[in-house]
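User: I'm preparing a small set of examples for a lab meeting where we compare how different chains pack in three dimensions. I only have the primary sequence for this one, and I'd like the structure in C-alpha cell form so I can line it up with the others. Please keep the answer compact; I'll paste it straight into my notes.
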Amino acid sequence: MAEEVKLFGMWASPFSRRIEVALKLKGVQYEYIEEDLSNKSPSLLKHNPIHKQIPHNPILPTDPYEKAMARFWAKFVDEKLLPALWKALVGEEKERETAIEEAHQQLKTLENELEEKRFFGGDGLGFVDIAANILVWLGVSQEALGMNIIGEEKFPILHAWTQRLLDDAVFKQCVPPREKHLAYSRVHFESLTAHILHYYVFMRECDPCQVEWS
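Assistant: Understood. Below is the C-alpha cell output for the 214-residue chain.
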C-alpha cells in the first residue's frame, strides 16, 4: 500500500499553498495538517519533504529548454522578486522609495516574460505560476499596509494573470479566505513593524558613531 501523503502547512503561508496546488494538479490525495510555526510539532520536525513518485500530470514542461527556463523564472521569483517585495513592504522608511522602485523593476521583468500568455506555463497552470503565487499574497499584504505596489494600472498583465489564478478551479482551493487573511496580515505587519523599529532604535543607540563627544 502506498504511503499516505501528509502536508504540514500554515493556512496563511504562500509556500505550503504552493505544494497544495501542485498536489491537487497531480491528483494526489493528501492529509493536510495545520502547524503553529511558533511551536512546531514533533511530527513536522521529524519528516522531510516528500520523495516519491506521483501520478503523471507534468507541472514542468517536458521540453528540456522550456523546463530549464521554467526553473530559471521560479528561481527569479524566490531569489530576486521576493526579497525586493519584502524590502519594499517592511524596509526602513528612508529606503522605502528606492525599495519600491526596485520591486517595480523586478515585477516588470516578470510581466515581460508573461506577455500575452494566459499563464506562465501556457494555457494552464505550470511551475512558474505556482512559484509566483506570492503575488496573490502581495495583494493582501499591500492592502494591509495601505500600499499599492502592484496596482492594475502599472502592471495590467500581471493583474489580469492574478485574476485568472483566483478563478482557476484548483488554485482557488488553496487561497486563504480574504478577510481572514487580511485581518491576520494587519496584525502580523503591525507586530513585525514594531520589532523592526525597536531594532533600528537599539542599533542607533548602540552605534558609537552616533555618540556626541563633549
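A couple of notes for your slides: Residues 48-56, 197-214 have pLDDT under 50 and may be disordered. The first strand starts at residue 5 and ends at 9.

User: Perfect, thanks.
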